[in-house]
Amino acid sequence: MTAPEAPAGPSPQPRVIDSHVHFWDPGLLAYPWLRTVPRLNRAFTPAELLESLPQPVEAVFVEAGRLPGQAAGEVRWVRELARTRPWIRGAVAHVSLDDPVGAPQSVRAHAADPFVVGVRHNVQDERPGFTAGADFRAGVALLGEAGLPFDACVREHQLDELADLAAACPRTLIVLDHLGKPSPSDPGRRWRTALRRLARRDNVVCKLSGLATEAAPGTAPETLLPVLREALQAFGPGRCLYGGDWPVMTLATAYGTWLDLVRTALADLPAGDADAVLHTNAARTYRLDREPPPARTPGAADPTDGRKEPA
Questions:
Q1: Total domain count for the chain?
Q2: Which CATH number is 225's domain given?
Q3: What is the DSSP string of 32-101?
Q4: What domain range is 88 assigned to?
């Protein structure tokens, strides 16, 4: 029997749940977007993440942009990784929410699966007005009925659309990824205004993630602090979640550097508020205190069958 893999080292530091990590292996699944980012166009696995961590961290996997038809296979693969790595607490799965036939089926299946803790349909490159489409909104509303949050990866110019979506789907908890991807060196009034409008919707929370890769190369980490603090002020520490965005973050920064930066942004807050951002809010948002996932049905198809599992 394979011994459980666990983060190594002492753990006097406060608990951390990273609400946004990716794993991928182009040898198992197809990720078309990786062809445009050569530095990321290889396998990134839990073992490599562990090597980069400055302390033990629990993690929520977020779908990584494989072909839409391989979304179920991605969840099966990550579930297998998590069986001997209990620090992988759950998965945010891809669902094509604008598919009026497939979306209800997928949402029902994920709602019955304790390992799936949320859903993402990445909309950052969709056409203007996409989130106002009737089929897409129906899919997002289904998530609320199923008790699954919606991870929203949008760009700065889509924040107002996201606020409208949040108003139209008040029962669905929406998780803003990467603060809406502002330009950290000069986020501007438009981003601040749109972020605060979005924050007025009490069914929206915000991940403190992804800023380093939006900044110009060579940007000093401390120059990102005002943007982090802006989000903390807009949403309050009770509605912000720490996210690393590994391994995309490796294009711009190291894991420990980003974690330290977020801790610096939290330094003036009461300890309870800082703990909320670093772990409590993620546990609540993704319902990580649920029962562990059931064992896979014998004979069920899995994309790793017949292949060596990545280290």
A1: 1
A2: 3.20.20.140
A3: GGGGG-GGG-S-B-HHHHHHH-SS--EEEEE-----GGGHHHHHHHHHHHHHT-TTEEEEEEE--TT-TT
A4: 17-285
Q: Averaged over 86-104, what is the pLDDT? A: 98
Q: Can you give the length of the chain in residues? A: 311
Q: CB-hemisphere CA count at 13 Å for 242? A: 28
Q: What span, in angstroms and rounded, lies between the C-alpha atoms of 81 and 43? A: 14
199-239: pLDDT as tens digits: 999 999 999 999 999 998 889 999 999 999 999 999 999 99
Which of helix, strand or coil describes residue 240?
strand
Q: Does residue 8 lie in a domain region?
A: no
Cβ neighbours, 10 Å, residue 207: 27
Query: Can you tell me the distance from the alpha carbon of 275 to that of 238, in angstroms, rounded to the nearest whole number?
Result: 10
Q: What is the mean pLDDT of the segment spanning 296-309?
A: 33
Q: What is the Cα–Cα distance from 26 to 125, expressed in whole angstroms?
A: 22
Q: What is the DSSP string of 91-115?
A: EEEE--TT-TTHHHHHHHHHHT-TT
Give the residue among 72, 88, 92, 161 at the shortest CA–CA distance from 123: 161
Give the burial string for 181-192 (b: 16+ CB within 10 Å, else e): bbebeebeeebb
